[in-house]
Design a protein that fits this description.
It is a single chain. The protein is built from 10 helices and 12 strands. The protein is an alpha/beta fold and 292 residues long. Helix 4 links the parallel strand 6 and strand 7. Helix 1 packs across helix 2, helix 2 runs parallel beside helix 3 and helix 9 packs parallel to helix 10.
């Protein structure tokens, strides 16, 4: 059985590589976690530099919120303009590889023209029929999220694995090698109802689905490195009865630690400093990561 070790923007991921940290920088005022929103040149520059200083391996730019429970759609032009402005500032301020969080082909193309090396598609290449052409042309590293535009039923661990396999096939059609692919099981994106475009509809309880995935990461990896994004998300608020995302830091860190001990290879987070410390300790204590 092959266990792929990825090279994402020339950074080793998976295998005996350290668990990597991806800092979240949102330039979308609509984002659910307002502390992550940076819209001015000074804020973007300072936040990016701070993330680099605190030990981030990548920075992920979001130009449109995809939170399933929010109605936050903006035009492609607005999303792309926000992202391009941030790319220029970050490239002039840090050496961090940049990931762009988008499922729109035009937005991805514009970002790749600016030298971005990673596309993080929450639809797993399934939303925009032109995305595969863009991916084929530029051959970036990919983060593929579990997603279905149709309702899904059954064992959601098995379903998640299948949805990720489908996205891997789409990436392979665009000639992306396995070594440039990381998988994301889409914590928070499987819901009974939602206002956004990018959630997967399920009949069962969304909280139980997310907890089941985090407990069984090894079953959905498909031998690829896995990225986990749990920072300040709804399941933490639900468990801790904390409606305000600003109150979820300790819960987020706990979930990130468990994720690392269960096999996560990249942790995408709003709080690089706290996550870096937690991940370092979790890696030392994890039986799955002996020898690190």
């Amino acid at each position: 059985m092959i266990n792929y070790v990825a090279k994402i923007a020339n950074v080793g991921v998976g295998g005996k590589n350290p668990v990597r940290i991806m800092g979240i920088l949102n330039v979308s005022p609509e984002s659910f976690y307002k502390k992550s929103v940076n819209t001015s040149k000074t804020l973007i520059k300072n936040t990016a530099k701070l993330m680099e200083d605190q030990g981030a391996d990548f920075i992920d730019i979001g130009g449109m919120s995809t939170a399933p429970y929010l109605s936050t759609s903006v035009s492609e032009k607005v999303e792309s303009t926000r992202i391009q402005n941030a790319i220029k500032i970050i490239q002039n301020s840090t050496n961090l590889p940049i990931s762009v969080d988008t499922c729109r082909a035009k937005v991805a193309k514009d970002a790749l023209e600016y030298g971005v090396e990673i596309i993080n598609d929450v639809s797993g290449l399934k939303h925009d029929k032109n995305m595969q052409d863009v991916i084929f042309e530029y051959r970036p590293s990919l983060i593929l999220c579990a997603h279905s535009s149709k309702p899904v039923n059954g064992n959601l661990v098995t379903v998640t694995k299948k949805l990720l396999q489908d996205s891997i096939k789409l990436a392979k059609k665009s000639h992306i090698p396995s070594e440039k692919i990381v998988l994301d099981p889409a914590i928070g994106f499987f819901r009974k109802t939602g206002k956004g475009q990018f959630f997967t509809k399920i009949k069962s309880d969304w909280l139980e689905r997310d907890l089941s995935i985090l407990k069984n990461l090894s079953l959905i990896k498909n031998n690829y490195p896995v990225l986990i994004s749990v920072s300040n998300k709804s399941f933490i608020g639900k468990i801790l009865e904390k409606k305000n995302p600003n109150d979820r830091l300790f819960g987020s860190i706990s979930a990130e630690v468990v994720s690392v001990m269960n096999g996560a290879d990249i942790v995408r987070t709003h709080d690089v400093n706290a996550t870096k410390d937690a991940v370092t300790i979790a890696s030392k204590l994890s039986k799955q990561r002996k020898g690190l």
